[in-house]
Amino acid sequence: MRIGRDHLPWIAGGAFVFGLSTGGYVVASGDPIEPWSGGSPMGLAFGIAAMACMLLAAALTLRKRLRNWRLGGTSHWLAGHVWASVLALPLVLYHAGFRGGGALTTTLMVLLAVSWGSGVLGLALQHILPRLMTEQVPRETIFEQIDHVAGLLREEARALVEAVAGPIEAAPAAAGGAAAGGAAAGAAAAGAAAAPAKEARPGSAPLKEFFLQQAWPWLAAKRPARAAFDQPSTADVQRAHVKRLVPAELHETVDDLFEVCEERRQIERQRRLHLWLHGWLFVHVPVSWALLSAALFHAVWALSF
Amino acid sequence: MTPDPAAPAPPPASPAPEPVALRLEQGDALALEELVALPLFEGLPKGRLKLNVGGVARRRLRKGEVICRQGDYGASAFFLERGAVEVFLESQVGRVEKSGGGRGLFRRLTSVLLPTRPAAPDEVGPRFIPVDAPVDLDRMHPVARIEAGELFGEMACLTNQPRAATVRAASDEVVVIEMLRSVLLELRNSPRHKERVLATYRARALDQHLQNVPFLAGLSREFVDRLRPRVKLLQFEPKQVIFKEGDPADGLFLVGMGFVKVAKSWAGGEFVLSYLPRGSCFGEMALLSDTPRSATCSALDHVDVVKIETEDFRAMLAEFPAIRERIEALARQRTEQNAAIERRAASADLEEFLAQGLLQAQNLLLLDLDKCTRCDECVRGCASAHGGVTRLIRDGLRFDHHLVATSCRSCRDPVCMPVCPVAAILRNPSSLEVVIKDWCIGCRKCAEACPYGNINMVDLADPGQARQEADPRAAPAKAKLRATTCDLCMSHGQPACVSSCPHDAAHRVDPLVFFRDRIELLDPEASSRVRGG
């Protein structure tokens, strides 16, 4: 979600309601005879308005469930979700008169703070990370297929080295237990690649050693730790180093091997960014539902007594 | 490992077609004397027949026995010597859906908010389904009968396409002459055979053919009878030109077999305006305006066309004013469509644009990667709008900061169309998007032909039910797949992928309009052509 021109009506409406509420609160809370109370007519109005904002924000879930209904574009609903949630915070504070209360009120305030804060964090992340991912991960794949693609890359790298250095029997199975799908796909990829050379080409030993010592453990790890391949700049230094160790006719293989590692690095970067991009929802969604439930309970309780 | 970003996505993997029989394994192979005695081969030199001994067999079948089955690959054609056979589709005529909506009162109450059923695209179109036989199948009841003396299975034999329909014996004693491709080609070159085919066409198929051309509806029986002895049957080899752009207009053509390519010459080569399947007509525009041909029409494969001479065409227009109005309206529509396609084709030539096939596209699904959070709501929205089966994959090539998603592009040159053995892939006449009709037989040819992997084969839940309702004696279904592609959610008002995107990242666009500014930045000359300058 990027805040753009299409959000202007929501921003203008929210600003208007915010200004009106702030004015009303300043006037009403300044009464020296009757202290501010959430149960006063003005306090109740703020409470009802805040509840309405929360319900409007929650309606996004309903819209997402009813994808096929003619209820307008989901992007409009998300814009409404964002700005109604933003407005709910001052309305709740005005309703409470900037004071805490009993256990329920405190719980509500904590839930509101967490829900609001996680929402703002999510908005910020969704502003920044998609562009970052586009720039840093040009070889992006479908998130669910990352393990599968990692398996393909691992076996492709092995096939590349085997084609010049002969069979690599010492390469252990995927360290850290790469996904079964990835291993199977990798085996398929290896089958499709060039067959291992019967005899190692002269001067290929350093490449084989580099592969076994550094590249293979990194490629085979399910979650590769930071290593020489983790940054393009350090990978370039490594590439130059390996090229110095092998004859010129093997330079193309070295380049291909580092390209495979670069792709693996990119999809690992994608995994991390993706988790940041969506991880905040694991906090925001349950806390928001808890907040809505507690607020409804609070409303029924307060109106009943 | 990663595909070349400049190359189109590879077509989806599919199992290899069943091996084509290189010789006839069923029936009794006919000796040279028997071949010479057959009326079918009358007029063929004995020396030519001698070369083909072993390529013709006689098969005797009892009622209900299957001669060839829909979807199978075969290198032979059939001549029905005695008895009658039935031709029918085994595939389920219906939409691909995996889940239903609500029912009863709730459904009625919510009908205002719910989209109309996505039936509109499939309910329009020709009344008859063209199959590889001298008869077409009525969409409402896709079963037809062929009597003795007819030839069927020619297209599958000549072009190695899968069989378009299943054929089985419909009478107690059926005798079929099965012949290999070499024999069929000899036959097609025989003047006597051409005469026979034309006579059969005039006697049996002309009426149905004329009925299937929408703007010719309403022709009187008397006029058709008058037309019958005057029409000509012309046969063309693959790539042979029927008429060239600029040629004088000399008649109206009806496609009897195969596909006709309609193309215009262009500075960059040629661009395809349309592919016309069996049952279509062409050549009316130049006749109406009395001008030279505006495009080149050529045979894409082995094509039979029926020609109606200019004087008959003019007599028809004079006698039937309603038909004249319809033809004039069609000619106007085609002129506008062709002009729009020409404007687009002459508009950009950026290398990357071309390399990704974007020039071919008329309608792209683009995801703005600076906005897209990769939440897959677009994919879920698509699945939701199509009964649980998505027609979109959120993957593909990038252009600028946009992802060109794997979803039908409504190509200007829809290479999926001419490979369909039952002509189930059509273009919407007004919006030009590609529509796969519900009589698809699931042969995968279109999915293999699509250079962008945008046609998905979907397993059908219950392929046998509809067919058995139409014909209780039908054999168990073999075809269980159905090709699906983006239909732009015609009945929803807006594509579901676009309306489902919470981040305003998904857009359906005309690439030449959408990327105009970027093209200008990279190539001002191309940009001026985009603007039509």
Structural notes for this entry:
The complex is a heterodimer of chains A (305) and B (533). Chain A is mainly alpha-helical and 305 residues long. Chain A has two domains: 1-99, no CATH class; 101-305, no CATH class. Helices cover 72% and strands 0% of the residues of chain A. With 533 residues, chain B is an alpha+beta fold. Chain B has 19 helices and 27 strands. In chain B, the strands form eight sheets. A five-stranded antiparallel β-sheet of chain B has the order 1-2-11-4-9. In chain B, helix 10 (310-319) packs across helix 11 and helix 18 packs antiparallel against helix 19 (524-530). Residues 1-23, 118-123 and 526-533 of chain B have low confidence and may be disordered.
Q: What can be said about the biggest beta sheet of chain B?
A: 5 strands, antiparallel
H/E order of the elements of chain A?
Answer: HHHHHHHHHH
Mean pLDDT of chain A: 86
How many DSSP H or I helices of chain A? 10
Summarize the structure in short.
Chain A is an all-alpha fold. Helix content of chain A is 72%, strand content 0%.
Topology:
The complex is a heterodimer of chains A (305) and B (533).
Chain A: H1 8-29, H2 41-65, H3 74-96, H4 103-136, H5 146-165, H6 180-192, H7 205-220, H8 232-245, H9 251-279, H10 281-304
Chain B: E1 28-29, H1 32-37, H2 46-51, E2 56-61, E3 66-68, E4 76-82, E5 84-88, H3 104-109, H4 120-123, E6 128-130, E7 136-138, E8 143-147, E9 151-152, H5 154-159, E10 166-169, E11 174-180, H6 181-189, H7 191-212, H8 221-227, E12 232-236, E13 241-243, E14 251-257, E15 260-266, E16 269-276, E17 281-282, H9 284-289, E18 296-299, E19 303-309, H10 310-319, H11 321-345, H12 351-355, E20 364-368, H13 377-385, E21 393-399, E22 402-406, E23 425-427, E24 434-436, H14 445-449, E25 456-459, H15 464-470, E26 481-484, H16 496-500, E27 506-509, H17 511-514, H18 516-522, H19 524-530
Keywords:
heterodimer, A: 305 residues, mainly alpha, rod-shaped, B: 533 residues, alpha+beta, Jelly Rolls, 29% helix, globular
